[in-house]
Amino acid sequence: MAVTVDLAATPLRDLNRRLQAIAGTSNETEFHIVNPRGAHALAVGLDAEVDVLIEGHVGYYCAGMNKQAAVRVAGNVGTGFAENIMSGTARCTGNASQSAGATGHGGLVVIEGDASARCGISMKGVDIVVGGSVGHMAAFMGQAGRLLVRGDAGPYLGDSLYEAVIYVAGEVASLGADCVEKEMTEAHRAAVAALLDAAGLEDDPARYRR
Amino acid sequence: MVDERKLSASATFPPEVIAEIQRAADEGIYDIRGGGAKRRVPSFDDLVLLGASVSRYPLEGYRERCDTDVLIGARNAAKPVHLKIPVTIAGMSFGAIGANAKQALGMAASALGTSTTTGDGGMTDEEREASSLLVYQYLPSRYGMDPDQIRRADAIEIVIGQGAKPGGGGMLLGQKVTERVAGMRTLPEGIDQRSACRHPDWTGPDDLEIKILELREITGWEKPIYVKVGATRTRYDVALAVKAGADAVVVDGMQGGTAATQSVFIEDVGIPTLPAVRLAVEALIELDVHREVRLIVSGGIRTGADVAKALAMGADAVSIGMASLMALNCNAPLYPEDYAALGTRAGFCHHCQTGRCPVGIATQDPALEARLEPEAAARRVRNYLTAMVLECQTLARACGKSHVLNLEPEDLAALTLEAAAMAGVPLAGTDWIPGR
Questions:
Q1: Which tens digits make up the pLDDT trace of B248-262?
Q2: What angle do CA B174, B193, A120 make, to 5 degrees?
Q3: Which of A134, A141, A166, B169 ranks highest by number of CB atoms within 10 Å?
Q4: Is the CB of residue A16 less than 8 Å away from at least one CB of chain B?
Q5: Any CB–CB contact under 8 A between A59 and chain B?
Q6: Domains in chain B, start-ordered, CATH in brackets?
Q7: Which pTM value belongs to this model?
Q8: Among the listed residues B46, B114, B86, the one whose alpha carbon sits nearest the alpha carbon of residue B404
């Protein structure tokens, strides 16, 4: 049975403290948060296998530094959604502001809508799946991990890329410095299919370029 | 036959400038080096303290108490940092310096009751175990950034810039990127690394306020949060850091060191520590938070006299990087052949970027690092810190102060017009502060 927390009546600190305290010591494994009203730093620093559903739009850094938890936002997310995620999943059903999944070390970030500038900036191992399009400088300085874009990519995609991998189905406005298009092999198409499957999105892997 | 009396070096093109032009002409790339600014800039050397006499009375040097402790973060953090001495060890990355150096600094700082600081690449177990108080640097690169590490830290320092290179990102050349360093940073081994100059998920003071909120929420509002800036537009930067919610502001003047960056950055960007302290203090006073939001000053601090003068100007503590490395043995006259192999001599070496540090500090080479025995190195740093604090206390007592933080601008006079203007203290023998 999900625990419902109304942020209109509960201070942010109380909610985060409760979520952070779980860490395997509580039977509460499902939270339903209502009235987020664009709150910043919501459900940050979690480290337990817990499902958190947030109904409404959130501000900056929702699900920041997440470990293990599955955080889902039914709405749009502000800057730095799931920044530095280590493991677990962070999903938003709407659009994401800039720097979604920034510096993420692991786990999966899913944005069902569009993501603004610098999605996946300095990514370090996270998988990011964007159902729509991404803005400029996506995966800027991406070190490791995978960014999949089902729509289009804005200018300077993958600028100063290290070893992160980018898959795009739509148009790419331009590639940034050091980002080069490479051949899609069967292994890459399988990777695309697996990413789409993990994200719960449907598409034809044959549409994608690397 | 050359008549030596008739040789006239150009002030515009002295031999070292000619050599650098010809190096650039050969190589087609800027010079990269370690260390801090080598040029002469107005500094604490240009100030003197006014010991007590008839108008004020001094405290007995060896008998009367002169406290040195500083509490940082009490305004927001449930667990503020309590320093026993007002001298901390500045952030230096594992990568830029080796694990033995980090460990030795930690052991020395712990013995004196002060803090050390991590650096780019995250926290090593060695430094955490060696340091009773450890400040975690939260940097633009976020290399090795793990929430468990910030939870293990005693304070968090959001690094926006450093004095050696305000506006520039970090740099670690491939020769120091060993398997361990590369693994910590999720980057390939042996390849030059350029750290970001700007945080990836915030820009500007309004965002910074939210970032500080996030860090506090993740660490349960337990830890003090510092904001570190390289000294440039210091008055505004400090005011904005305060507005964003910082518990302490670290201001690093242009004499501050680095393990590697472009020479032009080191010598030509930023302002000296002296005016930076004044500007920072003015901002804190204007916002009515002086002594509440703590000011930690770094960049060219070497002696207890430097510490006393910085505190008298209004700082709450200082931080040392280069000087602590010199206490470890940086530039000591040992292994002359290894200095020579780098094209330098002890006393002149700034070749941290090469990873071939003759004394085993700024290196990841096991053979070189073995030259720095942590216990002995820690003892040297401990002695140095002890001497520095004794010097500072001696000067504070001479000014009649029972706590080093009671030193005040009225205890200072300037020896040069430049220092008087920059520090905002009167030219010695006058009541004149240029510009006022």
A1: 999 999 999 999 999
A2: 145
A3: A134
A4: yes
A5: yes
A6: 31-423 (3.20.20.70)
A7: 0.97
A8: B86
